[in-house]
Design a protein that fits this description.
The protein is α+β, with helices and mostly antiparallel strands and 134 residues long. It has two helices and eight strands, in the order H-H-E-E-E-E-E-E-E-E. 19% of the residues are buried.
Length: 134
């Protein structure tokens, strides 16, 4: 019993990582701009630091899809989004008037979504994937 109490005390006493309140606000903004819906195949929200990159790879099957993306961050923040290995991508602002970017894409089996923070991170990036046809 003493071991359990000691472990509980140690776990509670462990210093917590400071939470960046801006990220919580930006996450709410991104989720409001690109909310969950019943016809989505998948969705995700990512917090990315300045200079970070991330790749989402998902087995989705073949067909036509709509990929919607939005990001939120400080003034001057930008991300680059690409949907293929050989694609340079498209730059997006994460501040100011944020509106989701929507891409129509035909996929053979997998979604490869690459995101890189170009300037003034951190940012919150959100994406959704909706199937249009098989």
């Amino acid at each position: 019993m003493i071991l359990i109490a000691g472990a509980a005390w140690w776990w509670r006493a462990t210093p917590r990582e400071p939470v960046d309140e801006r990220l919580l606000g930006w996450q709410l903004v991104a989720e409001q701009l690109l909310p969950e819906s019943g016809d989505q195949q998948m969705a995700g929200t990512l917090a990315l630091a300045d200079g970070d990159g991330h790749e989402e790879v998902a087995e989705v099957g073949s067909g036509e899809f709509l990929v919607s993306v939005v990001c939120a961050g400080d003034d001057g923040s930008r991300v680059r989004v690409s949907l293929g290995a050989d694609e340079t991508g498209r730059g997006m602002r994460c501040s100011g008037s944020r509106t989701p970017e929507v891409f129509s894409v035909g996929l053979a089996s997998e979604l490869h979504l690459r995101i890189s923070v170009e300037e003034a991170g951190p940012v919150v990036f959100r994406y959704t994937l909706q199937r249009l046809s098989w």
